[in-house]
Amino acid sequence: MIRRLLPRSLMGQMMLAVAVALLAAQTIGAVLAYRAGAERREAALLHSAAFRLLMTARDDDQDRREERRPRERDADARRERGPNGAPRRDGGGGFRLERRAAAPLQVGDKTDAEAARELRRILADQDFAAADVVVLRREIARDEITRRRIDRQQRMLAAQHEQSPTQVVLAAVQMPDRSGWVVARALVPPGERAIVMSLLLQTLFIYIVLVGAIALILRRITRPLAELTERLERFAETRSPEGQIAPQGPGDVRRLIVAHNAMEARIAALLDEKDVMLGAIGHDLKTPLAALRVRIESVEDDAERAKMAATIEDITRSLDDILSLARVGRPSDPLEKSEISALVASVVEEYEDMGEPVELLDTQRVVLPLRATWLRRGLRNLIDNALRYGQRARVSLVRETRQVVIWIEDDGPGIAEADLERMLEPFSRGDPSRNSSTGGAGLGLTLARAIAEQHGGALTLANRRGADGEVMGLVATLSLPLT
Length: 483
Description:
Layout: H1 2-5, H2 10-65, H3 70-80, E1 98-100, H4 113-125, E2 132-139, H5 144-159, E3 167-174, E4 181-187, H6 192-238, H7 251-295, H8 302-327, E5 336-339, H9 340-353, E6 358-360, E7 367-370, H10 372-390, E8 393-399, E9 403-409, H11 444-454, E10 458-465, E11 471-481
Parallel strand pairs: 6-8
Antiparallel strand pairs: 1-4, 2-3, 3-4, 5-7, 8-9, 9-11, 10-11
Helix pairs in contact: 2-4, 2-6, 6-7, 7-8, 10-11
C-alpha cells in the first residue's frame, strides 16, 4: 500500500527524498535548539534565585553580627516598605523572598535534584554553604503566593497581548545555622510556544527556498527526459525519424538526445534498406515462381502436376508471410475507426462460404481504431491454424473493462505447455511435417502476434482443458486495448 503512494517519476522521488532529509535535519535541529533554550532558561532562573538568596542571606548574617543603630533600622524599614507603606517587592521577578521554618514542600511536589546541585554549586562559589537546598517547579494554581500575584497582573498581560505563565520555580535554601529557610520564586517564561512557532516558520521558509530551487533544477532535467520518452514511444509505433526533439537541458541530457537522434536515424535507414531488399527479393522470387507455375501445366501426370503446383503455392504463401511480417512494423495505412464485431463476422463468413467448419459464437459491438486489412490477416492466420491442427474453429468476441478479447478455439491435440511461447516465434511449427495439409513456414502465429502488438495488444496461446483436466484443444486469445 505504501509503495503505491510513493511517486514513480524521477522528479517526484527526488523531491520526496529532499523533503524527508530536510524534515529529519530540521527535527534534529529543533530538538537541540529546544533543549538549549530550556537549559538557558533554567540557568537564568537559578542564577537569579541564587543572587537574591545570597543578598538576603548576607543581610541576615550582618544583622546577626551587628547591633544596628535606630537610624539604620528605620532606613531598613523604609527600604522594606514602599511609598504607601506596603511591603516592598524585591527586584527579581516581582516576588518577595519568603522566610519559613521548614522547606516549602507540598503534597505532589517533585524536587529537581540536578537543579538543586547546580544551585548549591553557585552558592558555594560565592562562599555560602547552605545547609540544604531544594528546587522544584509548581503549577501556579497550586502556589497561593504566586497565584495572588498573577491575578493582579492578568489585566496588564492581556493589554500587552502576552501569554500567561503556567509554572513557577521555587528555590529554597536552608541557612547554614539551620535557623530557617529562605524561598525565592521566579515565573517560568512561556517561551516554548514561541520557539516552536519560530522553528516551524524557519522550516517552512527553508522548504520554500530549497525545495523550490531543487524543483527548478529537476524540472530542467526531467522535462527533456519526458519528451525523449514520448519520442521513443512514438518511434516504437511509427518507426519514422520525423519529429525528432531538439537537444535541450543539461549537457549530459543534451548528449543523450543527440545520441538517440542519431540512433533513430540509423535504425530508420536500416529499416528502409530492409524494405527495399525484401521488395526486391519478393519481386525476383515471385516472377520465376509464376513462370514455373505456367510451365508445370505441360506435365502430363496429373498427380505430379498437382504436387508441383501445391509446392509452388506453399512457397508463394510463405514468401507473402515473410514480406508481410517485414512490413507489419511499419504500416503505411492509417488507423480507422471500425466496428470490430462486424469485421470478425465478415472473416468467419468467408470461411463459411467455402464450407469450412468455422462457427461464430457470442460477440459484442465495439468500435475501435484499427488497421482493418492487417487485423483480417491476423484473424485468418489464427483460424487457418485452428483448422489445420484442430479440424474446426469457434470464434467469439467479448468486451472487458480495458480491452476487447477475441477467442479462437479448436478441438485439436493442443500444444505442450513448454512449447506454447515458442510457437509464437518465427519458423516454429508444432507439426514437423511439411505436406500440403499441415505445411507452412511457421510464420502464421508470429505474424498474428505482430499484428496484435501493432495495435497495442497481445496474442497468447493456452490449452483448453475439460473437467477432468484432459486437453481438449487450443485457445488463441487476441486482446486489443480500448482507447
